[in-house]
Design a protein that fits this description.
The chain is of the alpha/beta class. The protein has ten helices and four strands. Strand 3 and strand 4 form a beta hairpin.
């Protein structure tokens, strides 16, 4: 067997693994300011690259080395739309606001990357069969932006917030604290959320109720 043939087989194998999920990007915003800015400063190729890289990062962080542990999704589609808000995900479709991109002041490519990591987490995370608190779902997605060291604007400091499942950065900071108590906590919590959800998962994993953990977290950062 020639070295060339072996090299070809290796390339084909890597290609198949890398492209097990198809990523498509559609700019529906056309010649609007946001649509033009997406084309000029971000682009389809970069978007697909970021979707691929974020997926690999999410799988690794969720400890989903076995495909059987992941959602069975063959295709993820990204749409740049003229709409209000920033972005949302429905099943395996991500919609990002061209209006938001067009009006963003600063590094729009970095901001877009953070948004995409957040939304890609929604694609791949388990939701407790729809039973998990929405704030927890958003907090897990938000923590992946920080864990991936993606550029994002700081919103809250550790210890801030009114309740543990308030969502986004408040919950992400709390989950980061929990992950510090037990490395891999977020991954194990996600595994448990595959078929359902209970606050008792915190007891199972950390030996304390979520309310106890939240109180200790708040006390740690009290000023």
């Amino acid at each position: 067997m020639s070295m060339l043939f072996l090299a070809t087989l290796l390339i084909l194998s890597c290609s198949t693994q890398s492209h097990a999920v198809e990523y498509t990007v559609t700019n529906n915003a056309g010649n609007t300011p946001g649509g033009v800015r997406f084309t000029n400063e971000i682009g389809i190729q970069y978007s697909q690259q970021t979707m691929t890289e974020s997926t690999d990062f999410i799988w690794r962080t969720f400890q989903q080395n076995d495909p059987a542990d992941r959602k069975d999704i063959a295709k993820v589609s990204l749409f740049i739309d003229n709409m209000d808000g920033v972005a949302y995900t429905s099943n395996n479709e991500i919609h990002v606001s061209a209006t938001y991109l067009g009006g963003f002041s600063g590094d729009v490519k970095g901001e877009f990357t953070g948004v995409l990591y957040h939304e890609m987490t929604h694609v791949w995370q388990w939701s407790g069969a729809g039973q998990a608190p929405g704030g927890l779902i958003e907090g897990i997605a938000r923590i992946f932006v920080r864990l991936g060291r993606v550029t994002c604007r700081p919103r809250v400091k550790p210890g801030q917030g009114d309740k543990w499942d308030q969502g986004y950065d408040v919950t992400a900071r709390f989950l980061d604290y929990c992950n510090g108590l037990k490395n891999g906590f977020v991954a194990e919590l996600n595994k448990k959320m595959r078929t359902g959800y209970s606050d008792n998962y915190f007891v199972d994993l950390l030996g304390k109720t979520v309310d106890q953990l939240w109180s200790e977290y708040k006390a740690k950062y009290a000023t």
